[in-house]
Amino acid sequence: MPTTYKNPVYPYRRPSELDQPSPRHCPVVIVGAGPSGLTAAIDLAQQGIDSVLLDDNNTVSVGSRAICFAKRTLEIMDRLGCAQPMLDKGVTWQHGRVFFQEREVYDFNLLPEEGHRIPAFINLQQYYLEEYLVDRAEELKEHIDLRWLHKVTEVDAQPELTAITVSTQDGDYRLTCDYLLVADGANSKIRDQLGLESKGQIFQDRFLIADVIMKADFPTERWFWFDPPFHPNQSVLLHKQPDNVWRIDFQLGWDADPDEEKKEENIRPRVQQMLGADVEFELEWASVYTFRCRKMDDFIHNRVFFMGDAAHQVSPFGARGANGGAQGIDNLAWKLARVLKGEAPDALLETYNTERQHGAAENILNSTRATDFITPKSRVSRLFRDSVLELAEHHPFARSLVNSGRLSMPCRYEDSPLNADDDASFPEALRPGSPAKDAPIRLCGESAWLLNQLGNRFVLLLDARLPTGQAEVLAPELETLLGNQPDLDLLVLGPASRALSGLPRTTLIEDADGLVVERYGLTPGAGYLIRPDQHVTARWTDSRREAVEDAIDRALGRHLDPLSHNQGGRHATA
User: Fold this and answer.
1) Residue 491 belongs to a domain
2) Distance between CA atoms of 353 and 358, rounded to whole angstroms?
């Protein structure tokens, strides 16, 4: 099949460990240099943590695979220094249409409110994302030892450390590590080696992905057909990607033969019938897949942490796989960095499992509902679906019931044990556990963005538009707070008093369009404590030093009982 993309080939390097008599010990070893493994290495590197990243291949993924990246994922990538090339290359979209048989029944617009740096969604082939992540990892090679054609063949996971055997073309070597992060995909060999399971549901249906290269006048939108005349009794999805590549998903039915359906001579007639006889196209890549919604009961085994598809898997409709994986890394990296630095107890790591089990369950629930709607398995469910689609054309209430893949939304850790104080007078959308919202600001007289001032450390966003004299009273308290909390930065919304501008680790910002105050519901003296992953952990109408310090202690897990959260000492205490 022709392709517009040429996969880069990365060099193998002979490891020095082959010449060492005993295993080398590392703080972190990561298995799998796909999106999850690369993201984890980059996130840890930005927080000063070294890692060895191993991959048994020497290039990026073949085929477009994940293509739809949501706003929250792009915000995470922006924090990691990887978003701009994605935005430059990707196809930005926010509009979608839903068709039933021969007619359009409704459309939708995902464009967020004005005043955001990042769009609602972009479409970008996974191989581009991986290439940009590799480029970023190379920029951080002081902290990332990226090794291609290094295959992990054995894993010995003990409560105190993990030992692995790595196979190369020059022989085998061994490493030990404090923490092993596993991102070796949905069919994880390490998960199997450790006798662990990913449990869930396999849906009895098959889908064909066909990536075709064509110059078409279709708009840059997400089009989804139920029971179209060119593919009756099934569903079809159409999306545009960069380089004039279009993703088409055809529902095939459970009885379809995957090997036959992947043959070009069988794919071409389907695509031609959909596009029309006069449309010329080339087939770039094709795959047949089955819907799977499953996850591990526990993402942590001794000191082995499972991430991405190795930990949880969802069906593609709804763009929840890669996006959920990025949010999982975003959750884990800051916690692991602080435990390794001795700034937090080991019990903090248990909250990766707590919070991301919630995120995975939410993704699986939405993905399962979409799958049940797209592929009804009984006469009654088919009748319900078709009736909803009929009604949706004329009645807005029915449109909320149409489910062609509810698109990925950012996860809120509402019941997290790390959340602290809240005040009901603030906006509901930014309650503790929620990701922070972006807004335009002025920084040193220049245009900037709020989210770019958050991340990697704790930040207290403080509304310092205070009456004369009040800032001078507050300044000594804030100076004491910053002295007591070396992991805390102060982001002061002004105009602010000179008494605050001289504080250490303090950045003064102004609300460029009034959207910071509007979105955060700020009043003078109010504040938000935001975690290193840009999630709100506490907020106050009156920000007092003792409350902020208590909230930081809570967010670092210092209140957690290591026995109750550790399954009887599953990890050693930091």
Assistant:
1) yes
2) 8
Token reading at 143: 């902290």
**Arithmetic mean of pLDDT over the chain:** 91
Q: What is the CATH number of the domain that holds 143?
A: 3.50.50.60
pLDDT given for residue 112 in this prediction: 67
* CA 25 vs CA 43, 160, 377: distances in Å: 21, 12, 52
Dihedral sign for Cα 262, 241, 74, 53, please. Answer: positive
Identify whether residues 465 and 551 lie together within a single domain. Answer: yes
Put simply, whether the predicted model's pTM sits higher than 0.90 gets the answer: yes
In this structure, the answer to whether residues 25 and 127 fall within a common structural domain is yes
| Pure H helices in 341-464 | 347-374, 379-392, 396-399
Backbone angles phi, psi at 342, to 5 degrees: 75, 20
Q: Are residues 43 and 139 in the same domain?
A: yes
> Nearest Cα to 46, choosing from 38, 36, 34?
38
- The H helix count followed by the E strand count for the chain is 15, 26
CA dihedral 221, 226, 230, 232 (to 10 degrees): 170
Q: 355-372: per-residue pLDDT in tens?
A: 999 998 888 888 888 888
Considering the domain boundaries, does residue 524 fall inside one?
yes
Single-letter residue type at 99: F
Distances (CA, A) of 53 to 27, 175, 304, 494, 561: 12, 12, 14, 43, 32
User: Which ranges of 47-125 does DSSP label H, i.e. alpha helix?
Assistant: 71-79, 83-89
Same domain, 365 and 432: no
Is the same domain home to 348 and 455? no
Residue 570 within a domain = no
310-336 b/e (C-beta count within 10 Å ≥ 16 → b): bbbbbbbbbbbbbbbbbbbbbbbbbbb
| pLDDT value at residue 347 | 96
Under the banding of pLDDT at 50, 70 and 90, the label for residue 221 is confident
CA atoms within 13 A on the CB side of 251: 26
Q: Please indicate, yes or no, whether residues 86 and 165 belong to a single structural domain of this protein.
A: yes
Residues 185 and 329 reside in one and the same domain: yes
Please name the helix (run of DSSP H) or strand (run of DSSP E) that holds residue 157, with its range, or none.
strand 151-157
Do the beta carbons of residue 301 and residue 232 sit within 8 Å? no
What's the CA gap between 322 and 126, in Å, rounded? Answer: 9
Give the residue from 369, 385, 420 where a domain finishes.
Answer: 369
Characterise 469 by phi-psi region: left (phi > 0), alpha (psi -120 to 50), beta (else).
left
Alpha-carbon gap, residue 319 to 322, rounded angstroms: 7
Amino acid type, 205: D
Our count of domains for the chain comes to 2
More confident residue, 484 or 289: 484
Beta carbons within 8 Å of 197's beta carbon, 6+ residues apart = 191, 296, 297
> In angstroms, rounded to a whole number, what is the distance separating the alpha carbons of residues 47 and 451?
17
- What kind and span of H or E run contains 295? strand 282-295
Residue 395 lies in a domain: no
Instruction: Answer with the one of 369, 389, 411 that is the final residue of a domain.
Output: 369
Model confidence over 388-398: pLDDT tens digits? 999 999 999 99
Provide the residue range defining the domain that includes 450.
Answer: 428-555
CA distance 567 to 549: 28
